[in-house]
O-succinylhomoserine sulfhydrylase (Pacificibacter marinus), 394 residues
Amino acid sequence: MGKTDWKLRTKLVHDGSRRSQYGEVSEAMFLTQGFVYETAEAAEQRFIEIGSDEFIYARYGNPTTRMFEDRMASILGFEDAFACASGMAAVNGALMSLLKAGDHVVSSRALFGSCLYILEDVLGRFGVEITLVDGTDLAAWDAAIRDDTALVFLESISNPTLEVIDLKHVCDVAHAKGALVVVDDAMATPIFSYAQACGADLAVISTTKHVDGQGRVLGGIIAGTRDVIRGPVEAYMKHSGGAMSPFHAWVQLKSLETLDLRVRQQSGTALAICEVLDGHPKLNAVRFPTHVAHPQYELAKSQGESAGTVLTIDVKGGKDACFKFLNALDIFTISNNFADAKSIATHPATTTHARLPQEQKDTLGITPGLVRLSAGLEDAGDLIADLLAALETV
Ligand SMILES: *Cc1c(COP(=O)(O)O)cnc(C)c1O
């Protein structure tokens, strides 16, 4: 059976593995910055042309990091990938390597705060023109993408409001105008990612989230065609210093072995929580893209089997009631990460999205009662009991 026939679970365990002369079973961690050349001529040759099993410096590439890149590219369905120090190094790297002064970019408005900072503050300073649209409004995308648009950026499922974007439609409109599509797929998870299938040119994923999945290390990946990844992306990343640490690549390679099991379990728990909390008298709303109560349920279902591991609830009674609920939780920890094995509750309005002006919070639907819940690996019944007991105190 050829590698290309491998199913996802097999790829997650084996793809991209390289063995050293010792024949180790578990992937080796090459915690080395540099590499030795037998002769001066060999060094000269390696700087002229670098072979697929050769390395120069860990900022450019490293055997452990390369295993991680190859496995990530394979599971996301892209030809190649570059591993970055964090999800934001990946977002910044993808955009900075592909854009120049004077370019026009269209992006959905509902973005992770740091992504919005890169687009508006950083790229804006270098003369890139940004048009922000309501990502759920197809006509808004059609009107905003122009003949001279260079790139379209979006989060396939937005953080924290869980808006779903019709990715196939946006890719078709962008490609008709010759624009590249870069998808931030952090919320969708690598397991349920549909970026490549819908025609996106690049997927960027914070591997800090589900890939590590255990709250330990930062990481990010940029996946795309070999020409783009080993062309402008690698050139920008290797010279600007955003490469992933080999230690983090090793931790996350081992995490990939269990990614499918963890994500499916956590996603099932998120759905089970929605089913119990939907219609609860203390809540205004419960949202999870692949739960029927979500306004874009049909679209979400048509794009992916399930929609990540994060749901939102809107607690009645504003900030005070919401804080009372949060403080009464026993198993859910109050934190701002998501996708951890430990279930996490986040209050976006006062933490991750506190910096946004009130008007923008209103437009995005970041209400005082909104809580982002990341379903972990604990027993689903225990988590539901924890949420119900905390709601009783409100
Ligand atoms: C977390 C996140 C990022 C940034 O990832 P880091 O690994 O924290 O740098 C970018 N985009 C989205 C949608 C995220 O959720």
